[in-house]
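Supplementary Methods. Inverse-folding protocol.

Structures were first reduced to a discrete structure-token string of length 453. This string, shown here, constituted the complete conditioning input.
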């Protein structure tokens, strides 16, 4: 079963989930992973895999067997395709940062990424991690195959044509049907991005979002950060440029913006806002004005990924893109009317519609609204208010971030939710991979029923 380690207390990055498993397994290869799952099942223990611990939820929590996939970090296979893309198979435990570096060595890159690279690829796809881009989907839309260890210890290869229903939950299913051992990704030739980061008046951003030449459609990747208690936003426009367009960011300027302002001073500012809440609006106004414009080119992963050293709690909802502006105005009105103080900016991103069963962008062009609160500040009242606001437009919560919805409500939001429940029940009838949080999201385990029934 591989190396076992002492079953101390595990906690996630945001300090919002803890677990004291009975056993912690560190399988070194596929055989040891199969043995760990089978032994956990025989012993009647729940089995959950954990990656980088960057989910804000208790999805990885177990009192049974915790499986750590750090050894599953191999770069298995590179297969060029006639359409110019390449299929790359990697171990499920590889961290995104290491994956990006290995892809770059082969002249390849992910089509889109989020802004954190500490997660494992398995954890990132299983929780619906995404980046931004009106014509692009989340990370799971780039998955074309997955190797899965099921509740019976069988090793199953899945893809759109092999075990296609199981594939749906293997690539985005919160680990509900098995432990991922390997993932096959469709990647593209390496490319450079021009990054343009500029502070804008919030109203200008909202007025220029839409249309063929608007901020969303007119850029490969667009996002913005709005600073509550102000009328200012930081815009980020990232677009592909030729490989010979090399305009690097001055390293001193990069350190000042990304480390000094965005991390060190931001941490101090949040500490001050915690001790003296009345200063929050002034701090946000100062922060919004301190971030000046910058423009540079770099390999795609270097542009997408930003250092995040200030710990926070986060809730993110996917809403129909056309509802974004009224939703933001209502959030703004609630913040100002409630007396709540919010030193963290609100992040807004965009994604294309897709057809993944449990994708937050299933069937609709999507805007993502992410609200954050500093680790030492209360978050529940603020997050609950935002959840009520987005509920009016059918908001779907990010699977890896905080929210309070349960299976009955989630079933109303996802057209293929019942299919996901059925496949989960068929794949894991005894609930080997369940935990209380997963049952809350997908429904309590019950024996699978036949399709005829």
């Amino acid at each position: 079963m591989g190396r076992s380690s002492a079953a101390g207390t595990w906690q996630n990055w945001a300090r919002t989930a803890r677990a004291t498993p009975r056993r912690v397994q560190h399988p070194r290869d596929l055989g040891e992973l199969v043995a760990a799952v089978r032994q956990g099942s025989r012993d009647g223990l729940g089995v959950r895999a954990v990656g980088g611990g960057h989910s804000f939820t208790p999805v990885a929590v177990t009192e049974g067997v915790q499986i750590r996939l750090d050894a599953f970090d191999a770069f298995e296979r590179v297969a060029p395709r006639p359409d110019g893309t390449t299929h790359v198979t990697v171990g499920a435990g590889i961290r995104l940062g290491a994956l990006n570096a290995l892809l770059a060595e082969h002249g390849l890159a992910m089509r889109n990424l989020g802004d954190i690279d500490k997660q494992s690829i398995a954890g990132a796809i299983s929780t619906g991690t995404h980046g931004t881009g009106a014509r692009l989907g989340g990370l799971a839309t780039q998955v074309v195959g997955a190797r899965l260890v099921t509740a019976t210890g069988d090793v199953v290869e899945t893809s759109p044509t092999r075990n296609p229903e199981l594939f749906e939950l293997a690539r985005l299913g919160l680990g509900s049907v098995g432990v991922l051992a390997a993932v096959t990704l469709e990647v593209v030739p390496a490319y450079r991005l021009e990054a343009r980061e500029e502070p804008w008046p919030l109203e200008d951003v909202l007025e220029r979002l839409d249309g063929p030449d608007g901020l969303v459609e007119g850029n490969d990747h667009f996002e913005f950060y709005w600073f509550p208690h102000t009328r200012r936003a930081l815009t980020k426009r990232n677009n592909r440029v030729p490989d010979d367009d090399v305009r690097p960011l001055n390293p001193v300027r990069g350190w000042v913006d990304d480390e000094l302002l965005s991390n060190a001073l931001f941490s101090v500012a949040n500490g001050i806002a915690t001790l003296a809440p009345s200063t929050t609006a002034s701090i946000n106004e100062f922060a919004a004005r301190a971030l000046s414009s910058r423009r540079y080119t770099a390999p795609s992963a270097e542009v997408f990924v930003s250092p995040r050293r200030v710990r926070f709690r986060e809730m993110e909802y996917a809403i129909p893109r056309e509802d974004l502006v009224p939703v933001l105005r209502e959030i703004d009105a609630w913040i100002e009317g409630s007396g709540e103080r919010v030193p963290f900016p609100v992040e807004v991103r965009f994604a294309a519609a897709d057809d993944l069963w449990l994708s937050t962008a299933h069937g609709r062009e999507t805007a993502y609204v992410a609200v954050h609160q500093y680790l030492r500040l209360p978050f529940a009242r603020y997050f609950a208010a935002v959840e009520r606001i987005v509920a009016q437009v059918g908001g779907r919560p990010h699977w890896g971030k905080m929210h309070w919805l349960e299976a009955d409500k989630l079933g109303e939001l996802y057209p293929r939710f019942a299919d996901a429940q059925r496949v989960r029940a068929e794949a894991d009838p005894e609930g080997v991979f369940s935990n209380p949080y997963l049952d809350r999201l997908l429904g309590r385990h019950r024996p699978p029923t036949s399709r005829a029934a």
